[in-house]
Amino acid sequence: MQIEETDIADVKILYPKKFGDDRGFFSEVWNAQTMKDAGLDLNFVQDNHAYNAEAGVVRGLHYQLDPKAQGKLVRVLRGAVIDVAVDIRVGSPTFGQHVAVELSADNWRQLWVPAGFAHGYCTLKPDTEIVYKVTDYYSPEHDCGIFWNDPDLNINWSVSAEKAILSEKDKILPLLKDQTRLFEFKETR
Fold it and tell me: Its Gene Ontology molecular function terms (predicted)?
């Protein structure tokens, strides 16, 4: 597995190897020891699978607070998305900055979104399916979010605000500057 750094050091792009022949393919998309050797010692507790019927579906920007914060390893089984991780660790040198990566069934990339980041995606194709592993269970009382189209974040979602398809919950999330429930940056060595 190849692991690529992004502009925000804690967010990683993973490239699992894919071995194919006329029967199909095989790919090891997660290996705890390989990740540990690469400095990602992760303990996943749950897998989530999301189906999106149309292009332009935006989900996010979501996160969970401590002690139920979630890291996420995201990949696309069918279709394509712009996948976004926003640093919401107050005091971080990259606070408010984001990484946006196209994930697709064709490019087979995965995005590691650590705890301390808000996560969201926008579907680029209809009938898109996403799966992601998380490091803690869903907890409604720790669930938070930031408005997807916050002008201070300047995220290129590849869809206009008029055409974006959002849940009622995501339509009313606060801007980052108005969110009082964030993470504190802890420098690691």
Answer: dTDP-4-dehydrorhamnose 3,5-epimerase activity
